[in-house]
Amino acid sequence: MMIDLSTIRSLELIQNITNVKSKDCLFGLLNETLTPMGSRMLRSNILQPSTQESILKNRYKAVGELASTEETFFDTRNALKPFLDIDKLLTNLIIQPTQPDIQHSEQSINHILMLKTFVQCVGPVYEALSGARSPLLVDIRNVCRPNNITPTLKIIGEVINDDVTFQRSPLDLRNQRTYAVKSGVNGLLDVARQTFKEATQDVHQHVSDINDQYEMQMETRYDNARRYYLRIQESNLEGRTMPDILINCYRKKGYIECQTLGLVKLNQRIEDSHQEVVLMSDKTVTQLIDNVRAEIQPLFRVSDSIAMLDMLAAFAQLVTTSDYVKPEITRCLAIKSGRHPVHEKAHSEKFIPNDVYADKQQRFQIITGCNMSGKSTYIRSIALVTVMAQIGSFVPAQYASFPIVDQLFARVSMDDCIEANVSTFASEMRETAFILRNIGKNSLVIIDELGRGTSTRDGLAIALSISEALVESQAFVWFTTHFRELAQIMNERAGVVNMHLKVDISQEDKMVMLYKIANGFVKEEHYGLALARVVNLPPLVLEVAEKVSKTLQAQAAAKKKSSKSFAIARKRKLVLSLREVLLQAQESAMQGKALMEYLRKVQEEFVRRMDCIENEADDSGDESVIGEEELNENDDGRNEDLEREGEFNEAEDDSDESEMTGTDKTEMLV
């Protein structure tokens, strides 16, 4: 799936817009990984979700097995915890420096120790997946077979001591480097190690002598800059002055850190002996790395497999802690009780789920509603759960099915671009132009209140023309707007559905946001004024606003009556909707009596809605039945273009409920 940079930012796929350190983004939600490789793979999958159905189904099976098999799940998570960043390590092993120095020699030993630790961690993963049954987990287990890593482990074992491992603390790591290469390889190497050992013992004896002489309780500490140094609590001094033997003293959080001249000399002696050990080991370690490079190809495969397993285990972790469901891959987009994954995390008890349904006959959905009614959250949740489904994750819903989407576009931000000297409207148009140039029939687009950055008339005109182009593209589009005229005009087009977010406005001008999606246009009028009353604008301002609103409404009021021509268009669209339902029934798992009962209900519903359209047409008082040819002539050629696609225009007002709704179809599928 292709996702452009603007969409990545707008949907907060990788980082939160308000606070870049916050985990309130899709990546922060899904990132339950335990290894650096798994985290990187998750990030790359979010930025470029898969479009191959076979890959996604194998991931669903693997996540489902991990989530349902407790022993395999916990064994896998425990086996993943010790892994280091093998991708970075293998890259460092491949690169050869032009001018090696002592630092490179030290790092070479570190890399060998890290590689040894990594190879030793692969075995527990193989054992954890011993009972795996899903194809993807079986493939990962086969890559992690012992015979794939035995050659590398054998090469390392011939040179490196068996009890030496990679350590994270500076002191332990230096000690491991010193004793990494086996004894007997070089006689001078053993002498340098003995010098290192004796100097280290002298440090501890030196500190013990100081404590006895001055009756103090000093502790030995180590860091890469100062090497060994002394630390004492301020409370242990009890008003005494610091001994003159202590140098380089400074206070730090209730402690005094210092050194002595003798300790500085011992540090230098230890460092010299350590460097001698490293330089003497360098030739042996360099030859070892050359031998490892010949066996490095299987290690890359193991690294990729560990990263994939870590990502799948992270998805399974979410399934076990959240109410997620395995998605299906179908021709339509249907979500039952879907939730915004990120908002649900922050408002788990208050978040209200919603249904979503879209197919080729309901591909362009216009969402209207009051301010703060949840329109933006609704369309964002559709895009986010689509991304989740196409990376192999389960989704927050009771039921979910998705078509394969190859492009995702989002025009939801409302910001100026000062750096590029672009206003809000210019930025909006630039992003929309990019969408129109690249959109395809398998794309998914969400657009939030297009045209609000300019005048009402120009904004409506641009929003209408762009909507026409998006309908022609055959893509799945969710389009939120406050332009009621846009919803009414586009309602005549085939493939267009009007939805709204419910809100309850009482006679006392109190607003209650219900956050539930419903069919048709938004019925509440002047909801902007109602919201203004809620926020306590001055009464005089509200009074003037109400007068102006009534005047404008009286001037623009024009009732559009239904006609037989529109009834013909509605009938044809209802027939096309019936075709989609029958195709879905054919692809479903229903058989026998269950299928017959379902088809009988569909037939009854179809007949009832056809009769409803006939009755509404008769009640309209339109006595002249306009034929199909006359309708094409009177509609400026628009229906002629639609007939080439096998579709016809729809004309419904906001109270029309005579068509099969998306919610009905979702319930039938479930």
UniProtKB/TrEMBL annotation:
Occurrences of domain DNA mismatch repair proteins mutS family (ranges): 443-459
GO cellular component: nucleus
Entry keywords, A to Z: ATP-binding, DNA-binding, Meiosis, Nucleotide-binding
Record keyword Flavoprotein present: no
SUPFAM superfamilies found in the cross-reference section: DNA repair protein MutS, domain III, P-loop containing nucleoside triphosphate hydrolases
Region (Disordered): 617-670
Entry annotated with the keyword Nucleotide-binding: yes
Name of the protein in question: MutS protein msh4
Species: Pseudogymnoascus destructans
High-level lineage: Eukaryota, Fungi, Dikarya, Ascomycota, Pezizomycotina
Name of the coding gene: MSH4_1
